[in-house]
Amino acid sequence: MNSAPMARMAIHTITTKPWSLRECIDSYRKKNVPGITVWRQALAPQGPQESAKMLRDSGLKVVALVRGGFFTGKDAATRQAAIDDNLRALDEAAAIGAPLVVLVCGATPGLPLADARKQIVEAIGKLVPHAQSRNVRLSVEPLHPMFAADRSAVLTMKQAREICGNLTAELGGAVCGRRLVGIAVDVYHVWWDEALESEIAAAGRLGLLHAFHVCDWRVQTRDLLNDRGLMGEGCIDIRQIRGWMERAGFGGWIEVEIFSNERWAGDQQVWLEQIVEAYGKHV
Length: 283
Prior knowledge:
CATH architecture: Alpha-Beta Barrel
Strand order of the largest sheet: 1-2-3-4-5-6-7-8
CATH class: Alpha Beta
CATH superfamily: Divalent-metal-dependent TIM barrel enzymes
Number of domains: 1
Order of helices and strands: EHEHHEHEHEHHEHHEHEHH
Radius of gyration: 18 Å
């Protein structure tokens, strides 16, 4: 299988976390990276309106805003606060021209995962009218089961697909007709799933494949959150999964999202060069 085209490459600002949004924009442009996925903390120093101007002037394509979610809680006030924050995230996405918000859906210690998933469906349902008015989609990202305790009750593509299905049944055309709620597929979180190929195909038939994130899984990982590998450093067959995505109809951006304490501590220009090279070789 051939390498992914550079024309589809985007980088998450968190991947080069030490840089400001301005530094990300300028450096990605110099390396001819055409797309950028913006994390909300990158907006904070100058605010969404100034960020929007910077992004418009850059010529980079804004692929997504990360992240919303964390919907679960043991009391109504906690859950409402999460919904309010996600409404703000949708406003921020609209301001910077991001077509979707990626959702890390949340989990609460002591709350059964099935109950957490019900809360997630309820919360996303409350966001749909605002998402529709802002012309921004909501993308559920299933997370690796190691995060089930406190980061996400959505652990597989199947569970993400079922959440989208439940919302479609409850809300009808507002979700189904425009695919306002779909799935963000991150290889780090789903590569291990024996049903991955068939679930990607099923999601594709339903028009649910919103996003595709790449990195790698270190065989000897040193930190479950912040030690992702550069593409080609680990055990994920990224190109195979890309093939499954494309056969399922996905032709969108391929987003490099890497959390790495080691790489964040180093020279970000060197790191960016390594990212671009690895994309060509392994994606």
